[in-house]
Amino acid sequence: MTSLGAMVLYIDPGTGSMLFTVLIGIIGFLLYIVRVFWIRIKFVITRGKAEQKNANKIPYLIFAEDKRYWQIFKPVCDEFEKRGIDVVYWTMTPDDPVFDLDYDHIKFEFIGEGNKAFAKLNVVNAGVVLSTTPGLDVYQWRRSKNADCYVHMFHSVGYGGYRMFGIDFYDAVLVAGQYQIDIMRELERTRDLPAKDAALVGMPYFDELRKKLDSSESVVNERTTVLLAPSWGEDSIFTRLGSKVIDELVKTDYDIIIRPHPQSFINDAELMKTLMEKYPENDHLRWDRSSDNFETLKKADIMISDFSGVIFDYAFVFDKPVICLETGSFDTNCRDYYWLEPKYYWTRNNLSNLGKKLTADNVNNLNDMISECLASDELKQNRTATCEAAWAYPGEAAVRTVDYLVRKGSEIAGSESPDASPEAKQ
Fold it and tell me: Are residues 259 and 360 in the same domain?
């Protein structure tokens, strides 16, 4: 019995090897089926997530860290609205003027202040992100892995004033003048950075200001009107010269408007209090603390300032001369200027084209300087040439900006855009 049972269970080596091979094949086939099934399940799951991610993606996001940048972005938003393209506008200011406006295609949202706002920005799901804020991927604002393209827009003329690496990690930059591209390329060369995309679009803010000026009533002054518009801090006119400029102005027959930077009343509060008490308002002297400087800029025949960005607004848009305080020590540490040769210090190098330099030594001759600036044809010609170099495509900036952003959005989506303006398709 035992012998018979052994014979029944006996399998010769050839047959056993064949059966073992068949068994391995079956197991391998089953593992293959399981693997294929799992891949299909994973594909369905991930495709669903991708489709959901794409469905929730913001095509165009504009980020403003402060309400004062609305004047920069408004022309761009108007152009998006005109084309019927949806845009999301995130602001860190709860009383941003955008919330008083009515758009069909622009959605405004207050995203909090400080780290709360940056926490949201750091995970945003967006196609094209437009901002004037430097320091992307340097400070607390990090690139989101769900954002495809970051575009920086300059909010003033000039370059090099940003802290180090201010725009290094943007993908593209929109500039007002060719010289800004030249400076950017020099920084990329000296720091061995990859070349960013650059688009020469002009200055939307200047376009709107010029449009507002052209549509407003002209001003005819009975007396020459001088605008004293200093900035604040240790290099401002009031800090370096005290009351000397006002002392000289009140000796003249000019009407005087004094418009300090709002920050002066915070950082230089005691000094401002002293000056306003020493020089109270009268028929020919006025302190201007209004939120909108347009009427003041329009009324003034000449401006005296230091390093305030309003210098270029005034000289280029209103086409009037300025007298600027000569800068003291020029600290390039911690700024992009550190890598640049002096020939690239565009702002400093071009101030003399706009007017005369004010110093502690010539402040007593201020009346003569004002007369010379107002009468100089050479200064006017220099101002015009500098403006043309700094401000490309006057009146076209918003259209060119949106053309570029739409093109970028189309590249990301992998399709040709039907929304570009006729100019972009030529």
Answer: yes
